[in-house]
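Below is one such record:
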Amino acid sequence: MQKKATLSWIAFAAVCFFWGTTAPAIRVAVRYFPPLLLSGVRFAMAGALLLPVLLVLGKGPDNWTVALRRSIPGGLSLAIANALTCIGLATVRSGQGALLLATTALWMTVIDALWPSSRRRVSPLSWLGLTLGLLGVALLFDSPTISLGASLGTLILLVSSLSWAFGSVWQSRHPSHLPPLLEAALQMLLASLFLLPGAYILGERWNPAIPTTGWLAFIFLVLTGSLIGFVSFVFILRTLPPRVVGLYTYVNPVVATWAGWWWLDENVRPRFWLASAVILGSVALVRYADNRAFAVKTGESAAESTLPPI
């Protein structure tokens, strides 16, 4: 039991660190790789590494047709959200990008409550939290100094957050019942099948003269963002309470900010810290209100965890 608890906290630390450093790694990678091609090849490699291991361990699906069909919505959601994330992070600083993606928790609460046949409602406290979150996002528009590219990147990251929230709620409403690691491997492979043809249609081509820095960022994303981070996430979902797992949402933007400052010399303005406090405070408020309302109805805690599209 003690060993399992220790492994749980090691895995939690891995999620906090590696998913926090994914944002600056994407910022480096998109300098040398076109965004859709970067995401497509990244997921193809990660899925191709994970799936054979599962098959050797006897963790393959009983029915491949059913497994693939049930993984399509998740793969499509992953493809759209991650492609938009890569496009947005080309012009947005790492910490700001991770902070925008953290708003996924806000959108999920609202979308889940507005979903047809949903018995949950957005409480006044949740609406207050959502309003504060939007105010924090507005603070990130550091006008008049913010560039047009950064403004567009901010909007794209918000759309990415919204699209991932919608996909997450859809999947929670239509669970595939596949083992989590198998579902992750299939979703990543299917995401690559959506992304790579799109990259070809848009004229994205592989640059043969990619420097070592670009390759290191790419390998980092495959191994840490798509494999270590996700495997750790699945593990802590099974071993730690949801309210503890959800804390990574608050840690990732901080890690991303410091990693961006350390690796990429990104400047952090005072306005960013104010926006961070407002946005993360709003996420905490919405989660508290959502859990409280759910607990009153069911006597249980609502699951808070959400997988960000990075």
User: Anything to note?
Assistant: The mean pLDDT is 80.
